[in-house]
Each structure stands twice: as C-alpha cells, then as structure tokens.
Amino acid sequence: MKKICLASYFAGTAHLLEPFFKKHIKNSPVLFIPTASNIEDYKNYVYEAEQKWQEMGYQIEILDIANTDKETAVNKLEQTDLVYISGGNTFYLLQELQNKNLIDILKRRIEEGMVYIGESAGAILAAKSITYSELMDNREHASHLQSDNGLDIVDFYIVPHYQNYPFVQTSEQIIQHYAHLNLLPLSNQETVIIEGNEVRKLTSI
C-alpha cells in the first residue's frame, strides 16, 4: 500500500500528519534528502524541517544525492522505511536522482510500502512529469537532465505555495497554463495524505 504525504511547507503542516506518522512510521529513522536545496540561496525551510522531525522524536540521516556515490544511495534507500525529500529546484533534484539511476528504485520502494514525504519540489516530483513546474523552477540549473519524467506515484500534479508569497503569480500561471492537467494546488497551510487509493487533503487552521 502506498503511504505518501505531500506538502508545500512541511514544518508548518507536520502537526496535521502526526496521526499518519504514528500509524505508519513509529520509530523509523528519517532518510532526509535536502538535495533540491543545494542551488538555492534561501534554505531556512530545510533547517525548519530538520528541526521539526527532531521535535517529533525522529532520528535523521542526511543523504545528499548530489554528493553521495550511487552504491551508498541505493543501500540507504533499500534499508529505510521512510524517505523525506525537501523543497528547492525540482529540475536539479530530478537530474541528480537520474544521475544515480535512483528513480526506479524510489518507485519500487514506495510500492513496497516505504513512506514517502515530499515537500514542495519533493511533492512535484511525485507526479508523472515535472514539466509544469518550469514556471516556478529554473530548469537551467539542470543542464544534464535526461527527461522530465517524475516518480509517477500519484495521478495528480501538486502546485505548491498556492497564493503564498513569493509564488502567488507563478502558481496562478501554472494553473492557467496547465489547466488540462489534474492539478492540485496546495497552500503552505495544506497537505495531502495518500494511503492506498485514498487521498485526503488537510488544512491547518
């Protein structure tokens, strides 16, 4: 059964996920992948997410795909029961996963029941394709990207930071330009939980 959580802003919505965590995660350490943030100047959301996991009592193991050899990355993905992928540049993130041939391994592990938590870029990655995010992310940071094919683990396309600064305009442009896709806008106060075929959207008040 798929066990997936997708959010725009993990630190601000993690409290909504605690029942899900207690049900599926228990005391599993978190394989924390901050790779998408490597080329970003602003990284506070990564530090906030790391702090939030620690506050909830979880051990964290950092895995930067860009600076890890393939064998190590594969071994860690095979062994973990929980992977968290942070926000940043989705094209750069996908490029680094492709460089280490990790996409198929990630998909298989998710199908096997590994919990997948995706924030912003990590949430966009869950879709069949990440092309639609080019209005929000600069693909020039991924000059070696082989394709725009995402994980294809959900049948919708997350639009993160909907109506939230500084993405008010770009998120609206995505909705208008890619209206033919099954888009799911998420503000920084919202998150989506997928358990098997059940999809639930939760909002922080």
TrEMBL record:
Show the GO MF annotations: serine-type peptidase activity
Q: What is the scientific name of the source organism? A: Neisseria arctica
According to UniProt, the name of this protein is Peptidase S51
Q: Which UniProt keywords apply?
A: Hydrolase, Protease, Serine protease
Q: Which family does it belong to?
A: Belongs to the peptidase S51 family.
TM ranges:
none
Q: What does the record list as GO biological process?
A: proteolysis
Tagged with keyword Hydrolase: yes
Q: Check the record and name the Gene3D superfamilies matching this protein.
A: 3.40.50.880
Database matches in InterPro entries: Class_I_gatase-like, Peptidase_S51
Pfam families assigned: Peptidase_S51
